[in-house]
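Hello forum,

I keep getting stuck at the same step: I have a sequence, I want structure tokens, and every attempt I make locally crashes halfway through. Rather than fight my setup again tonight, could one of you with a working pipeline run this one for me? It's a single chain of 103 residues.
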Amino acid sequence: MLPPGVPDIGAVFGSYTYLVSEVVFGAIAFALLHRKNAVHRAGVTIAALYPVAYVWDWYTLTIGVFEIHLRTGVDLFGIPIEEHLFMIVVPALVVAFHENLHG
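Reply #2:
Ran it on my machine without issues. Output:
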């Protein structure tokens, strides 16, 4: 149940809700990285983190730590496509904020 005043985007985007949220936050990350000319540096960091994140995500999904309901249902290498994006967007956003605060 959502708190009063919080829009339910799941009702709007349905099975594309997670994908839409990753695209929106990914666009914010990209814009911030581009602003500081840090897209390449962030890409190197993301590439280094990605294999660990993938294994961690695959394992936690496999053992049932969490379940994703509002997703497309498209899997790639055993995990939802949205999770692949998540593993790119989260570190990109962290690096983007770091670059904009300290770069």
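The helical segments are 9-13, 17-35, 39-63, 81-102. If your local run keeps crashing, start a new thread with the error log.
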